[in-house]
Amino acid sequence: MRLTLMPLDSVPAPLVKKVAARLRRIVPWTIKTSPPLTCQLGGKQQGQVDAREVLLLLPEGERHNVLTVGITDDDLMVPGLDFVYGHAMPERRTGVVSLHRLQSVSGPPAARQKALLERACKEVLHEAGHVLDLVHCQDFTCVMHYSQTLHDTDAKRCAFCPKCLIDLSRMPENADRSR
Ligand SMILES: [Zn+2]
Ligand SMILES: [Zn+2]
User: Fold this and answer.
1) Which end of the chain is more exposed for a tag (fewer CB within 10 A), N or C?
2) Residue 154's closest CA among 103, 89, 98, 94?
3) Per residue in 79-88, pLDDT tens?
4) Is residue 54 in a domain?
5) How far apart are CA 68 and CA 30, in angstroms?
6) Which residues pair with 71 in a beta bridge?
7) What is the CA(15)–ligand 1 centre distance, in A?
8) Is residue 120 one of the residues assigned to a domain?
9) Domain containing residue 125: CATH number
10) Phi/psi-derived region of residue 177, left when phi > 0, alpha when psi is between -120 and 50, beta in every other case
11) What residues are labeled active site?
């Protein structure tokens, strides 16, 4: 599996590199970071951006085991949901995560930064899971559990549960890691 993390617009590259470093310790994938991509979709739609518009700007995975997850500061929505922490288009092998609602509003800066990093890691892994056709998991400690609030995000671990790991191992892209 090759996962590329792409900072969008003003998202700081060092944060994205930290997310990549943390995820490398969790999943046996090749995880790279890319140069930033300028989308500049914010400002339309009452300050929110349709996550699907962002996903269409990301490079499409040329193979089934090549994924890209963009990380944006913009507040994302999709029709039918007031906001989303992230969204995925499995058919394009792309996902996007928003940092907008992952920030803590109180606490010392170091603690806030740590919480943001941990939440970003969980949401990136969650969207990567969707790109790999995983569905939401009932296990509230599993990274594929649906986050309705930050409480849900904080309650889950930055890891797939045993059931989701089995589902992942059955997918065609895991059959041949050398591709
Ligand atoms: Zn989800
Ligand atoms: Zn699970």
Assistant:
1) C
2) 103
3) 999 999 999 9
4) yes
5) 12
6) 7, 97
7) 22
8) yes
9) 3.40.390.10
10) alpha
11) 127
Task: Tell me the ligand closest to 81's alpha carbon.
Answer: 1
User: Could you say which ligand is closest to the alpha carbon of residue 146?
Assistant: 1
- Alpha carbon of residue 33 to chain centroid: 13
Closest-approaching ligand to the CA atom of 157: 2
d(Cα 126, Cα 95) in Å, to the nearest integer? 9
Q: How, if at all, do strands 2-7 and 30-33 pair?
A: parallel
How many domains, the chain? Answer: 1
CA of 116 relative to ligand 2 center, distance in Å: 22
pLDDT confidence of residue 175:
52
pLDDT in tens, 103-121: 988 899 999 999 999 999 9
**Rounded CA gap, 157 and 63, in Å?**
29
Give the Cβ contact number of residue 138 at 10 Å: 10
Structure confidence at residue 171 (pLDDT): 78
CA angle in degrees (0–180, nearest 5) for 151-165-8? 55
Domain with 123 in it: 2-173
131 with 69: CB under 8 angstroms?
yes
Separation CA 68–CA 95 (nearest Å) = 6
Ligand 1: centre distance to CA 127 (Å): 6
Residue ranges of the chain whose pLDDT lies below 70: 43-46, 173-179
How high is the pLDDT of residue 43?
A: 65
Cα–ligand 1 centroid distance for 144 (angstroms): 6
